[in-house]
Amino acid sequence: SCTVALSDPLAVLKLTMACNSCDATDVKGRRFFVGGNWKLNGSKDSIKALVTAWAAEDVDKAVEIVIAPPAVYLDFLRQALPSNYSTAVQNVYKVANGAFTGENSVAMAKDVGAEWVILGHSERRHVFGESNELIGEKVEHVLESGLKVIPCIGEKLEQREANETQAVVEQQLDAFMYRIKDWSNVVLAYEPVWAIGTGKTASPEQAQEVHANIRSYIAAKINPVVAANVRIIYGGSVKPANCVELGSQPDIDGFLVGGASLKPDFTAVINAQRK
């Protein structure tokens, strides 16, 4: 396998040499990752019902599963979830504490059992006005503070129609990727803004093309070993009906799921790669 912690330059050099003999199956051996982003949805009653339904289903134990509820429900959800599900917060601020009304900190997220943080979701960027620079600062702070991060990148419809997709995602990547010391704590999420919550989904070919280009950009700007190992997941109206075909693409390593993660059949998305 070509999977290692990627903070040690010597380990990277050794792995680069070893990967010269890796075949495509080995490189694709990145662990499949399925995240559920509940956004501003949920209640204690709905969480109880959903977790009960999920617990009754047989899910693929090889998949890493992470659920991001509204922060006020995180501890409640974590205590109810089966042990093979982890939790994330949907956002944190770039400092540890202070006079920042309405924000959450990494320390608070860790205190209630979160292991991951979603950052830079398109709603944070385009509804709440978060800049690339702020998202970069947050990514750096989260990783330095001991949580793992899911940074989100993606273009608007007018940017895709103007053939600016790659330029947009590169600009978004540039804001945080040079701040990352250990890429094993990072899962990238490509989410075309025009496909989020709209019912429109990038075709498997469209999604694969962008994922492959992101991987190539990381190979050129960071190094090929990081690029081969980092997981790049897709988000944008993923559901049971389209997850198998999307998940079969060589550079799609899982999903960040919105509305479909609030339903009992979310387990079908978790099992997208089960033969």
Order of helices and strands: HHEHEHEHEHHEHHEHHEHEH
Structural class, by secondary structure, is alpha/beta
- Quickly count the helices: 13
The proportion of residues in beta strands is: 5-15%
**Helical content class:** 25-40%
Record field, number of beta strands = 8
Global geometry: globular
- Note the main sheet: 8 strands, parallel
**Mean pLDDT over the residues:** 91
Q: Reading side by side through the largest sheet, how are the strands ordered?
A: 7-6-5-4-3-2-1-8
The parts where pLDDT drops under 50 for at least 5 residues are 11-27
Radius of gyration: 18 Å
State the separation between the terminal residues, measured CA to CA: 21 Å
Annotate the secondary structure layout.
Elements: H1 9-19, H2 24-27, E1 33-37, H3 44-55, E2 64-68, H4 74-80, E3 85-89, H5 106-111, E4 116-119, H6 122-126, H7 132-144, E5 148-153, H8 157-161, H9 165-174, E6 187-190, H10 204-221, H11 224-229, E7 231-234, H12 243-247, E8 254-257, H13 266-270
Parallel strand pairs: 1-2, 1-8, 2-3, 3-4, 4-5, 5-6, 6-7
Written account of the structure:
By secondary structure, the chain is an alpha/beta fold. It is 39% helix and 13% strand. It contains 13 helices and 8 strands. The protein has helices at 9-19, 24-27, 44-55, 74-80, 106-111, 122-126, 132-144, 157-161, 165-174, 204-221, 224-229, 243-247, 266-270; strands at residues 33-37, 64-68, 85-89, 116-119, 148-153, 187-190, 231-234, 254-257. It has an 8-stranded parallel beta sheet. Helix 9 crosses helix 10. It is globular, with a radius of gyration of 18 Å. The two termini are 21 Å apart.
